[in-house]
Design goal:
With about 525 residues, the protein is an all-alpha fold. The protein is about 45% helix and about 0% strand. It has helices at about 30-40, 50-55, 75-80, 85-90, 105-110, 115-120, 135-145, 145-155, 170-175, 180-190, 205-210, 215-220, 235-245, 245-255, 270-275, 280-285, 290-295, 300-305, 310-320, 330-335, 345-350, 355-360, 375-380, 385-390, 410-415, 420-425, 460, 465-475, 485-490, 495-505. It holds the Pfam family Ank_2.
Length: about 525
């Protein structure tokens, strides 16, 4: 809205008397009203109310014309808290709405202009008219946390259970601010405790979600349902656990909130607490959570703790007897490209040695996952975790079911780390199968680089071919190298000694068996 300032010539800037309308006839209604309001604000001789009265009597003046945002003079008076101006403007305008559907009463409430609210109510303003978001004056008063205005509106008999466009009631909005005085007024006026918004959320759920203990106690005291569930199945207990509100969780559990109600995701409050690393909340939920119910969810809290590196929570769950070999359900496994299934796998892929040690010490089986944890650790070059897994029975010679080879698959992932490669050979890895080839000395067909079995001839493997073959020869007797391996050795003059070694070699280490990663079974159909 434009702001005008007019001075009389030679007056030293003193304001122009409003009686002389001819001198400001070029000003708009908005500008004239602004002058009136400014006069009122500065308590000048001519009051704002008198100015408005004079302006309204001026021929050609139309105070019903809206300004650019759709506000009439009555809305502006309510905004600025001009009680006396407002009284002059009320006739025929008391319930006019802005372009956003706001009445003068709603504007006054939004600005917590208590005097204007009283004037409007006394002059017939309708307290039930909402804006276009369906927010009523009562809702706005609760949003602004004004007990006085709420009381004034309730005294005029407003409906207390009206919902805004998202289904929120005045009580729900009040709970967000934990204003018990307003909560009490609303309940005495008939507010319903368990009305849901468009997401199925009740006031108690809102209090738990926001950690508002005072409001939560108040609602429970007046009979609110502690086991209410939102449309996505989440309970107030689940939401409190997710947000880490310890006191709220304790309060809900003391009121018999059900810790075994799953949401649409199937997870329980214990799952989300483990995922968030809330060890205190986890300790409260463990005694009241059914392990049988956990099994039916298809995921253990151990998975979530391991996935997020929540070692303290992981330890608590292990000590509480949760199954360290629990596997993800088929549906949940499909969410991961590598089809992981165990908590141990999550710990290994996170390179979390301590978590892996705890799980293995508690009896975790390192051979349950399709893509073995040992392969993951070898690919990352984590010798410490590799040793830990081997010491606890990891199968060095395991294959990948979806990509079968005749040599141990773990060799494919350890060739870049020769000390690790040798460790695997020293601890039961098969070496001889690495030299088996159906083509022998005959020409080999071109390899399909998209297949796992082609890794031995990829550039990254070729660089290591000589050293790898040299290591493998120490674990076998006399072998005949196939034409492909001979090509590799011939590609670098410094590897001629290795080729000679293969021709007259005898075992110098125990023939333990090895991975055949270098030779890679490209010849398998």
């Amino acid at each position: 809205m434009a702001s005008a300032s007019v001075s009389r010539p030679g007056s030293g800037g003193s304001a122009l008397a409003f009686e002389d309308y001819s001198l400001y006839s070029n000003l708009t209604d908005d500008e004239l009203l602004q002058l009136a309001i400014e006069r009122s604000l500065t308590e000048m001789q001519c009051s704002g109310a008198a100015a408005v009265r004079a302006l309204a009597m001026c021929p050609g003046t139309n105070l019903m014309l809206p300004s650019k945002p759709g506000w009439l003079a009555v809305h502006q008076a309510a905004w600025f808290g001009q009680d006396s101006c407002l009284r002059m403007l009320l006739s025929g305008m008391v319930n006019k709405r802005t372009s956003r559907g706001e009445t003068p009463l709603l504007v006054a409430v939004s600005r917590v202009q208590q005097g204007c609210v009283q004037v409007l109510l006394e002059n017939g303003a309708d307290p039930e008219i909402p804006n276009y978001e369906k927010e009523t004056p009562l809702y706005k008063a609760c949003e602004r946390n004004s007990a006085a205005i709420v009381a004034a509106l309730l005294n005029h008999g407003v409906a207390v259970n009206t919902r805004c466009i998202q289904g929120w009631t005045a009580l729900q909005e009040t709970v967000v601010h934990s204003n018990l005085e307003i909560c009490d007024m609303l309940l005495k006026a008939g507010a319903k405790l368990n009305l849901r918004n468009m997401y199925g959320i009740t006031p108690l759920f809102t209090a738990a979600q926001n950690g508002q203990m005072a409001a939560l106690r108040f609602l429970i005291k007046h009979g609110a349902d502690v086991n209410t569930q939102a449309d996505d199945g989440a309970t107030a207990l689940y939401e409190a656990a997710k947000m880490g509100h310890q006191e709220v969780v304790q309060m809900l559990l003391s009121q018999k909130a059900d810790a075994n109600k799953p949401g649409k995701t199937g997870m329980l409050p214990l799952h989300i607490a483990a995922q968030r690393g809330s060890d205190t909340i986890v300790s409260m939920l463990i005694p009241v959570t059914s392990k049988a119910r956990v099994r039916r969810t298809g995921i253990s809290p151990l998975h979530l703790a391991a996935e997020r590196n929540r070692d303290d929570v992981l330890e608590m769950l292990i000590e509480a007897g949760f199954d360290v070999n629990a596997q993800l359900s088929e549906e949940r496994m499909r969410l991961y490209e590598d089809r992981r299934s165990t908590a141990l796998y999550f710990a290994i892929i996170n390179n979390n040695t301590e978590a892996a040690r705890m799980l293995l010490a508690a009896g975790a089986d390192p051979n349950l996952d399709m893509f073995r944890p040992l392969m993951v650790a070898s690919r990352m070059g984590c010798i410490q975790i590799v040793k830990l897994l081997v010491e606890h029975g990891a199968d060095i010679n395991a294959a990948i079911p979806t990509h079968p080879t005749t040599f141990p698959a773990v060799y494919m992932f350890s060739m870049k780390y020769l000390p690790l490669f040798k460790y695997l050979l020293d601890h039961g890895g098969h070496a001889l199968p690495c030299f088996h080839c159906r083509y022998g000395g005959q020409p080999h067909p071109p390899l399909k680089t998209s297949q796992v079995k082609t890794s031995r001839s990829s550039p990254s493997i070729c660089r290591w071919a000589g050293p790898i073959i040299d290591v493998l020869l120490d674990y076998v007797g006399h072998v005949t190298l196939c034409s492909r391996l001979m090509e590799h050795l011939d590609s670098y003059s410094g590897w001629s000694a290795i080729k000679e070694k293969a021709g007259n070699h005898r075992t110098t280490h125990r023939p333990s068996s090895c991975l055949r990663s270098v030779h890679r079974s490209h010849d398998q159909g």
